[in-house]
TrEMBL record:
This is Nudix hydrolase domain-containing protein. CDD domains: NUDIX_Hydrolase (cd04697). InterPro entries: HAD-like_sf (IPR036412), HAD_sf (IPR023214), NUDIX_hydrolase-like_dom_sf (IPR015797), NUDIX_hydrolase_dom (IPR000086). Residues 38-181 form the Nudix hydrolase domain. Gene3D superfamilies: HAD superfamily/HAD-like (3.40.50.1000), Nucleoside Triphosphate Pyrophosphohydrolase (3.90.79.10). Signal peptide: none annotated.
Protein backbone atom coordinates (compact mmCIF):
# COMPACT_ATOMS: atom_id res chain seq x y z
CA UNK A 1 0.00 0.00 0.00
CA UNK A 2 1.08 3.58 -0.58
CA UNK A 3 2.31 5.52 2.39
CA UNK A 4 -0.11 8.29 3.28
CA UNK A 5 -3.24 6.41 2.19
CA UNK A 6 -5.95 5.14 4.50
CA UNK A 7 -4.68 1.59 4.28
CA UNK A 8 -1.39 2.53 6.00
CA UNK A 9 -2.28 1.71 9.62
CA UNK A 10 1.05 3.03 10.87
CA UNK A 11 0.65 6.47 9.29
CA UNK A 12 1.30 9.18 11.89
CA UNK A 13 -1.79 11.32 12.51
CA UNK A 14 -2.17 14.82 13.94
CA UNK A 15 -4.37 14.60 17.03
CA UNK A 16 -6.03 17.78 18.34
CA UNK A 17 -7.80 19.08 21.40
CA UNK A 18 -11.52 18.33 20.87
CA UNK A 19 -12.60 21.73 22.22
CA UNK A 20 -10.08 24.07 20.62
CA UNK A 21 -8.62 22.21 17.61
CA UNK A 22 -5.15 22.92 19.04
CA UNK A 23 -2.64 20.30 17.82
CA UNK A 24 -1.26 17.86 20.37
CA UNK A 25 2.51 17.48 20.62
CA UNK A 26 2.71 13.72 20.18
CA UNK A 27 1.79 11.88 16.95
CA UNK A 28 -0.53 8.87 16.85
CA UNK A 29 -0.74 6.04 14.34
CA UNK A 30 -3.91 5.72 12.27
CA UNK A 31 -4.92 2.34 13.72
CA UNK A 32 -4.83 3.65 17.29
CA UNK A 33 -6.72 6.78 16.26
CA UNK A 34 -9.49 4.72 14.65
CA UNK A 35 -9.67 2.20 17.49
CA UNK A 36 -9.87 4.89 20.17
CA UNK A 37 -11.99 7.30 18.09
CA UNK A 38 -9.47 10.03 18.93
CA UNK A 39 -10.03 13.61 17.80
CA UNK A 40 -7.97 14.44 14.72
CA UNK A 41 -7.99 16.74 11.69
CA UNK A 42 -9.36 15.93 8.24
CA UNK A 43 -9.85 17.69 4.91
CA UNK A 44 -13.10 17.69 2.89
CA UNK A 45 -12.92 18.65 -0.78
CA UNK A 46 -15.92 19.59 -2.91
CA UNK A 47 -14.86 19.25 -6.54
CA UNK A 48 -17.39 21.12 -8.66
CA UNK A 49 -17.90 21.21 -12.44
CA UNK A 50 -18.57 24.92 -13.15
CA UNK A 51 -20.68 24.38 -16.26
CA UNK A 52 -23.50 22.62 -14.38
CA UNK A 53 -22.60 22.93 -10.68
CA UNK A 54 -22.52 19.15 -10.21
CA UNK A 55 -20.13 17.43 -7.82
CA UNK A 56 -17.57 14.74 -8.56
CA UNK A 57 -18.80 12.14 -6.05
CA UNK A 58 -16.59 9.19 -5.19
CA UNK A 59 -17.50 5.62 -4.45
CA UNK A 60 -14.96 4.74 -1.79
CA UNK A 61 -12.82 1.64 -2.20
CA UNK A 62 -13.78 -1.57 -0.43
CA UNK A 63 -10.31 -1.45 1.15
CA UNK A 64 -10.98 1.74 3.09
CA UNK A 65 -10.81 1.44 6.88
CA UNK A 66 -13.65 3.99 7.25
CA UNK A 67 -16.96 3.74 5.36
CA UNK A 68 -15.83 1.28 2.62
CA UNK A 69 -17.87 1.43 -0.63
CA UNK A 70 -19.87 4.42 0.57
CA UNK A 71 -20.62 7.42 -1.62
CA UNK A 72 -18.48 10.39 -0.63
CA UNK A 73 -19.47 13.88 -1.87
CA UNK A 74 -16.43 15.45 -0.17
CA UNK A 75 -13.37 13.26 -0.63
CA UNK A 76 -10.30 14.21 1.33
CA UNK A 77 -8.20 12.63 4.01
CA UNK A 78 -6.91 12.49 7.53
CA UNK A 79 -4.28 15.15 8.21
CA UNK A 80 -0.86 13.73 8.97
CA UNK A 81 1.31 14.75 11.92
CA UNK A 82 2.86 18.15 11.28
CA UNK A 83 0.82 18.58 8.08
CA UNK A 84 -1.42 21.58 7.38
CA UNK A 85 -5.01 21.40 6.18
CA UNK A 86 -4.15 22.95 2.82
CA UNK A 87 -1.15 20.69 2.32
CA UNK A 88 -3.30 17.64 3.06
CA UNK A 89 -6.12 18.73 0.75
CA UNK A 90 -3.70 19.31 -2.11
CA UNK A 91 -2.06 15.95 -1.56
CA UNK A 92 -5.38 14.11 -1.38
CA UNK A 93 -6.88 15.58 -4.56
CA UNK A 94 -3.70 14.74 -6.45
CA UNK A 95 -3.38 11.19 -5.05
CA UNK A 96 -7.03 10.23 -5.40
CA UNK A 97 -8.00 12.00 -8.64
CA UNK A 98 -4.74 12.91 -10.36
CA UNK A 99 -5.42 16.66 -10.26
CA UNK A 100 -3.20 19.31 -8.74
CA UNK A 101 -4.38 21.95 -6.25
CA UNK A 102 -3.46 24.65 -8.76
CA UNK A 103 -5.32 22.86 -11.55
CA UNK A 104 -8.62 22.94 -9.61
CA UNK A 105 -8.01 26.29 -7.89
CA UNK A 106 -8.37 24.73 -4.45
CA UNK A 107 -9.75 27.23 -1.92
CA UNK A 108 -10.38 26.80 1.78
CA UNK A 109 -13.84 27.76 3.04
CA UNK A 110 -14.42 26.96 6.71
CA UNK A 111 -13.46 24.69 9.61
CA UNK A 112 -16.01 22.66 11.54
CA UNK A 113 -16.36 20.11 14.33
CA UNK A 114 -17.90 16.72 13.62
CA UNK A 115 -18.52 13.78 15.92
CA UNK A 116 -20.53 10.58 15.70
CA UNK A 117 -20.17 7.00 16.94
CA UNK A 118 -17.31 6.28 14.55
CA UNK A 119 -15.36 9.49 14.02
CA UNK A 120 -14.32 12.57 15.99
CA UNK A 121 -12.60 15.32 14.04
CA UNK A 122 -12.08 18.96 13.16
CA UNK A 123 -12.62 19.21 9.42
CA UNK A 124 -11.58 21.91 6.98
CA UNK A 125 -13.72 22.24 3.85
CA UNK A 126 -12.26 23.18 0.47
CA UNK A 127 -13.74 23.82 -2.96
CA UNK A 128 -12.09 23.00 -6.26
CA UNK A 129 -13.48 23.67 -9.74
CA UNK A 130 -12.67 21.54 -12.78
CA UNK A 131 -14.37 21.28 -16.16
CA UNK A 132 -14.00 17.60 -17.05
CA UNK A 133 -15.54 14.15 -16.97
CA UNK A 134 -15.12 11.33 -14.44
CA UNK A 135 -13.43 9.26 -17.14
CA UNK A 136 -10.69 11.88 -17.45
CA UNK A 137 -9.61 11.44 -13.81
CA UNK A 138 -6.64 9.28 -12.79
CA UNK A 139 -8.17 7.47 -9.84
CA UNK A 140 -6.14 5.78 -7.12
CA UNK A 141 -7.55 2.26 -7.03
CA UNK A 142 -6.69 1.68 -3.37
CA UNK A 143 -8.80 4.72 -2.43
CA UNK A 144 -11.49 5.23 -5.08
CA UNK A 145 -13.65 2.61 -6.77
CA UNK A 146 -15.42 5.04 -9.14
CA UNK A 147 -16.59 8.65 -9.58
CA UNK A 148 -19.93 9.93 -10.83
CA UNK A 149 -21.49 13.35 -11.34
CA UNK A 150 -24.28 14.28 -8.91
CA UNK A 151 -26.09 17.46 -7.98
CA UNK A 152 -26.33 18.41 -4.32
CA UNK A 153 -30.02 17.49 -4.44
CA UNK A 154 -29.23 14.05 -5.81
CA UNK A 155 -26.71 13.44 -3.03
CA UNK A 156 -29.28 14.46 -0.42
CA UNK A 157 -31.88 12.20 -2.02
CA UNK A 158 -29.43 9.29 -2.06
CA UNK A 159 -28.73 9.76 1.64
CA UNK A 160 -32.40 10.09 2.54
CA UNK A 161 -33.22 7.09 0.33
CA UNK A 162 -31.02 4.78 2.35
CA UNK A 163 -27.95 4.61 0.12
CA UNK A 164 -24.74 4.42 2.13
CA UNK A 165 -23.15 7.87 2.17
CA UNK A 166 -20.34 9.02 4.46
CA UNK A 167 -22.10 10.98 7.20
CA UNK A 168 -19.24 13.30 8.07
CA UNK A 169 -19.15 14.38 4.41
CA UNK A 170 -22.94 14.83 4.44
CA UNK A 171 -22.56 17.19 7.39
CA UNK A 172 -19.83 19.04 5.47
CA UNK A 173 -22.13 19.20 2.43
CA UNK A 174 -24.93 20.84 4.40
CA UNK A 175 -22.44 23.35 5.78
CA UNK A 176 -21.17 23.96 2.24
CA UNK A 177 -24.69 24.79 1.04
CA UNK A 178 -25.18 27.14 4.00
CA UNK A 179 -21.80 28.75 3.30
CA UNK A 180 -22.82 29.52 -0.28
CA UNK A 181 -26.10 31.05 0.91
CA UNK A 182 -24.12 33.12 3.41
CA UNK A 183 -22.23 34.69 0.55
CA UNK A 184 -19.31 32.32 0.15
CA UNK A 185 -16.01 34.15 0.09
CA UNK A 186 -17.58 37.57 0.62
CA UNK A 187 -16.00 37.59 4.05
CA UNK A 188 -15.07 40.67 6.01
CA UNK A 189 -12.23 41.01 8.48
CA UNK A 190 -11.81 39.01 11.66
CA UNK A 191 -12.56 35.62 10.16
CA UNK A 192 -16.31 36.23 10.33
CA UNK A 193 -19.15 36.16 7.86
CA UNK A 194 -22.24 37.98 9.06
CA UNK A 195 -21.17 37.48 12.68
CA UNK A 196 -20.56 33.75 12.14
CA UNK A 197 -17.15 32.29 12.95
CA UNK A 198 -15.70 30.44 9.99
CA UNK A 199 -13.07 28.75 12.15
CA UNK A 200 -15.88 26.97 14.01
CA UNK A 201 -18.66 26.99 11.41
CA UNK A 202 -21.94 25.44 12.51
CA UNK A 203 -25.24 24.52 10.93
CA UNK A 204 -27.86 26.98 12.05
CA UNK A 205 -31.10 25.70 13.47
CA UNK A 206 -34.12 25.88 11.21
CA UNK A 207 -36.19 28.99 11.85
CA UNK A 208 -39.09 28.26 14.22
CA UNK A 209 -40.55 31.77 14.30
CA UNK A 210 -40.05 34.98 12.33
CA UNK A 211 -40.36 38.34 14.08
CA UNK A 212 -40.80 41.42 11.87
CA UNK A 213 -40.36 44.92 13.20
CA UNK A 214 -43.17 47.13 11.91
CA UNK A 215 -42.14 50.75 11.28
CA UNK A 216 -39.29 51.24 8.79
CA UNK A 217 -38.98 47.47 8.33
CA UNK A 218 -42.18 46.02 6.88
CA UNK A 219 -42.48 49.26 4.97
CA UNK A 220 -40.24 52.22 4.21
CA UNK A 221 -41.82 55.65 3.71
CA UNK A 222 -38.72 57.79 4.19
CA UNK A 223 -39.45 57.82 7.93
CA UNK A 224 -42.72 59.73 7.48
CA UNK A 225 -44.67 57.70 10.05
CA UNK A 226 -41.65 57.51 12.38
CA UNK A 227 -41.31 61.29 12.30
CA UNK A 228 -45.03 61.67 12.95
CA UNK A 229 -44.72 59.41 16.00
CA UNK A 230 -41.76 61.40 17.32
CA UNK A 231 -43.62 64.67 16.79
CA UNK A 232 -46.76 63.29 18.43
CA UNK A 233 -44.84 62.23 21.55
CA UNK A 234 -43.11 65.60 21.72
CA UNK A 235 -46.43 67.47 21.35
CA UNK A 236 -48.15 65.31 23.99
CA UNK A 237 -45.37 65.84 26.53
CA UNK A 238 -45.39 69.61 26.00
CA UNK A 239 -49.18 69.98 25.85
CA UNK A 240 -50.28 67.47 28.50
CA UNK A 241 -47.37 67.61 30.96
CA UNK A 242 -45.87 71.01 30.33
CA UNK A 243 -42.41 69.64 29.56
CA UNK A 244 -39.86 71.83 27.84
CA UNK A 245 -39.44 71.26 24.08
CA UNK A 246 -36.93 68.48 23.47
CA UNK A 247 -37.41 66.91 26.91
CA UNK A 248 -39.38 63.98 25.45
CA UNK A 249 -36.40 63.01 23.29
CA UNK A 250 -34.09 63.32 26.31
CA UNK A 251 -36.36 60.93 28.22
CA UNK A 252 -36.17 58.49 25.31
CA UNK A 253 -32.36 58.69 25.27
CA UNK A 254 -32.08 58.29 29.05
CA UNK A 255 -34.63 55.51 29.60
CA UNK A 256 -35.04 53.67 26.29
CA UNK A 257 -38.56 55.00 25.64
CA UNK A 258 -40.25 58.28 26.49
CA UNK A 259 -42.96 56.33 28.35
CA UNK A 260 -40.49 54.65 30.69
CA UNK A 261 -38.92 58.03 31.35
CA UNK A 262 -42.28 59.58 32.14
CA UNK A 263 -43.07 56.75 34.57
CA UNK A 264 -39.67 56.59 36.24
CA UNK A 265 -39.54 60.32 36.82
CA UNK A 266 -43.10 60.44 38.14
CA UNK A 267 -44.37 62.64 35.33
CA UNK A 268 -47.07 60.13 34.33
CA UNK A 269 -49.17 58.12 36.79
CA UNK A 270 -48.19 54.44 36.85
CA UNK A 271 -51.72 53.16 36.34
CA UNK A 272 -53.46 51.45 33.45
CA UNK A 273 -55.80 54.29 32.50
CA UNK A 274 -53.07 56.93 32.29
CA UNK A 275 -50.67 54.67 30.41
CA UNK A 276 -53.30 53.49 27.92
CA UNK A 277 -54.40 57.07 27.30
CA UNK A 278 -50.84 58.12 26.53
CA UNK A 279 -50.17 55.15 24.24
CA UNK A 280 -53.35 55.61 22.24
CA UNK A 281 -52.86 59.37 21.89
CA UNK A 282 -49.27 59.30 20.66
CA UNK A 283 -49.82 56.43 18.21
CA UNK A 284 -52.83 58.01 16.50
CA UNK A 285 -50.85 59.37 13.54
CA UNK A 286 -53.06 58.69 10.54
CA UNK A 287 -51.03 55.77 9.22
CA UNK A 288 -53.40 54.80 6.37
CA UNK A 289 -52.82 58.24 4.80
CA UNK A 290 -49.08 57.58 4.56
CA UNK A 291 -49.14 53.91 3.49
CA UNK A 292 -50.83 51.98 0.70
CA UNK A 293 -51.24 48.31 -0.29
CA UNK A 294 -48.00 46.63 -1.34
CA UNK A 295 -48.72 43.63 -3.61
CA UNK A 296 -45.02 42.78 -3.93
CA UNK A 297 -44.62 42.59 -0.17
CA UNK A 298 -47.72 40.44 0.13
CA UNK A 299 -46.46 38.05 -2.55
CA UNK A 300 -43.09 37.75 -0.80
CA UNK A 301 -44.69 37.00 2.58
CA UNK A 302 -46.95 34.38 0.99
CA UNK A 303 -43.88 32.57 -0.36
CA UNK A 304 -42.49 32.02 3.14
CA UNK A 305 -42.81 28.43 4.31
CA UNK A 306 -46.27 28.34 5.94
CA UNK A 307 -44.90 26.07 8.68
CA UNK A 308 -42.92 29.05 10.03
CA UNK A 309 -45.19 31.38 12.05
CA UNK A 310 -44.77 35.11 11.46
CA UNK A 311 -45.16 37.77 14.14
CA UNK A 312 -44.91 41.54 14.26
CA UNK A 313 -42.59 42.60 17.10
CA UNK A 314 -43.04 46.32 17.67
CA UNK A 315 -42.11 48.88 20.32
CA UNK A 316 -45.44 50.62 19.70
CA UNK A 317 -48.99 49.48 20.52
CA UNK A 318 -50.92 46.70 18.84
CA UNK A 319 -53.49 49.03 17.27
CA UNK A 320 -50.78 51.07 15.55
CA UNK A 321 -49.26 47.91 14.06
CA UNK A 322 -52.73 46.72 12.99
CA UNK A 323 -53.34 50.01 11.16
CA UNK A 324 -50.01 49.67 9.34
CA UNK A 325 -50.70 46.05 8.34
CA UNK A 326 -54.19 46.92 7.15
CA UNK A 327 -52.90 49.82 5.07
CA UNK A 328 -50.22 47.58 3.50
CA UNK A 329 -52.79 44.87 2.72
CA UNK A 330 -51.03 42.17 4.77
CA UNK A 331 -52.99 42.08 8.04
CA UNK A 332 -54.15 38.50 7.44
CA UNK A 333 -50.63 37.09 7.00
CA UNK A 334 -49.38 37.27 10.60
CA UNK A 335 -49.94 34.98 13.55
CA UNK A 336 -49.87 37.71 16.16
CA UNK A 337 -48.47 41.06 17.29
CA UNK A 338 -45.99 41.46 20.14
CA UNK A 339 -46.37 45.06 21.30
CA UNK A 340 -45.18 47.17 24.21
CA UNK A 341 -47.99 45.90 26.46
CA UNK A 342 -47.05 42.28 25.66
CA UNK A 343 -43.52 43.16 26.80
CA UNK A 344 -44.68 44.70 30.07
CA UNK A 345 -43.77 48.20 28.79
CA UNK A 346 -40.09 47.17 28.73
CA UNK A 347 -37.86 48.72 26.09
CA UNK A 348 -37.72 46.55 22.99
CA UNK A 349 -33.93 46.24 23.21
CA UNK A 350 -34.14 44.50 26.59
CA UNK A 351 -33.88 40.83 27.49
CA UNK A 352 -37.29 41.05 29.15
CA UNK A 353 -38.92 42.14 25.87
CA UNK A 354 -37.30 39.31 23.88
CA UNK A 355 -38.24 36.76 26.54
CA UNK A 356 -41.84 38.03 26.38
CA UNK A 357 -41.82 37.66 22.58
CA UNK A 358 -40.63 34.05 22.91
CA UNK A 359 -43.34 33.27 25.44
CA UNK A 360 -45.94 34.85 23.16
CA UNK A 361 -44.79 32.72 20.22
CA UNK A 362 -44.32 29.57 22.30
CA UNK A 363 -40.66 29.16 21.26
CA UNK A 364 -38.34 27.75 23.92
CA UNK A 365 -34.98 27.92 22.11
CA UNK A 366 -33.67 31.39 21.16
CA UNK A 367 -31.74 29.83 18.26
CA UNK A 368 -35.09 29.12 16.59
CA UNK A 369 -36.05 32.81 16.50
CA UNK A 370 -35.15 35.25 13.73
CA UNK A 371 -35.62 39.02 14.00
CA UNK A 372 -35.88 41.45 11.08
CA UNK A 373 -35.37 45.01 12.31
CA UNK A 374 -33.88 48.38 11.40
CA UNK A 375 -32.62 49.15 14.93
CA UNK A 376 -29.02 48.20 15.74
CA UNK A 377 -29.87 48.24 19.46
CA UNK A 378 -32.65 45.71 18.94
CA UNK A 379 -30.47 43.53 16.72
CA UNK A 380 -27.63 43.63 19.22
CA UNK A 381 -29.94 42.44 21.98
CA UNK A 382 -31.23 39.70 19.68
CA UNK A 383 -27.65 38.50 19.20
CA UNK A 384 -27.00 38.54 22.93
CA UNK A 385 -30.14 36.45 23.42
CA UNK A 386 -29.00 33.89 20.84
CA UNK A 387 -31.53 34.92 18.18
CA UNK A 388 -30.68 35.02 14.50
CA UNK A 389 -31.22 38.41 12.85
CA UNK A 390 -31.18 40.44 9.64
CA UNK A 391 -30.74 44.21 9.41
CA UNK A 392 -33.41 45.90 7.27
CA UNK A 393 -32.41 49.37 6.16
CA UNK A 394 -28.82 50.27 5.33
CA UNK A 395 -29.00 54.05 5.82
CA UNK A 396 -29.43 55.82 9.16
CA UNK A 397 -32.49 57.96 9.82
CA UNK A 398 -30.74 60.73 11.75
CA UNK A 399 -27.49 61.17 9.83
CA UNK A 400 -27.92 59.43 6.46
CA UNK A 401 -24.79 57.36 7.05
CA UNK A 402 -24.46 53.64 6.25
CA UNK A 403 -25.77 51.42 9.06
CA UNK A 404 -23.45 48.61 10.13
CA UNK A 405 -24.42 45.79 12.49
CA UNK A 406 -21.87 43.06 13.21
CA UNK A 407 -24.44 41.05 15.15
CA UNK A 408 -26.50 40.18 12.04
CA UNK A 409 -26.29 37.41 9.50
CA UNK A 410 -26.99 39.86 6.69
CA UNK A 411 -28.15 43.36 5.86
CA UNK A 412 -30.70 44.36 3.23
CA UNK A 413 -31.98 47.75 2.15
CA UNK A 414 -35.66 46.77 1.88
CA UNK A 415 -37.69 43.86 3.28
CA UNK A 416 -38.55 42.68 -0.27
CA UNK A 417 -34.88 41.65 -0.62
CA UNK A 418 -35.26 38.99 2.10
CA UNK A 419 -35.33 35.96 -0.28
CA UNK A 420 -31.81 36.85 -1.41
CA UNK A 421 -30.32 36.39 2.07
CA UNK A 422 -32.65 33.75 3.57
CA UNK A 423 -33.68 31.53 0.65
CA UNK A 424 -34.08 28.53 2.94
CA UNK A 425 -37.27 29.91 4.52
CA UNK A 426 -39.04 30.33 1.16
CA UNK A 427 -40.95 27.84 -0.95
CA UNK A 428 -39.73 27.31 -4.49
Amino acid sequence: MLAGTSQNASEQIQLVDPLTNAPLAAPCDRATMRLGRLCHRASYIFLVRPSDGRLFVQRRSALKDYCPRCLDPAPGGVVGFGEGYGENAGREVEEEMGLSAAEVGLRRMFTFRYEDGRVDCWGAAFEGRWEGEPGDLRLQEEEVESVRMMSVGEVLEADEGGEKVTQDSMHALRLYEQFKKDGGWGVGGGGKLGGVKLDDYKLRRPVEALFFDCDDCLYFDNWTVANRLTAKIEDWCVREKGLAPGRAYELYKEHGTALRGLLREGILEDEAGAIDGYLEDVHDVGVPEALSPNPGLRAMLLRINPAIPKYVFTASVKRHAERCLEALGIADLFDGIVDTRTCGLQTKHSRAAFEAAMRFAGVADPAGCLLLDDSVKNLRCAGEMGWRSVLVGLVGRDDGRPVVCDDCEAGIDRIEELPGVLPEIFRA
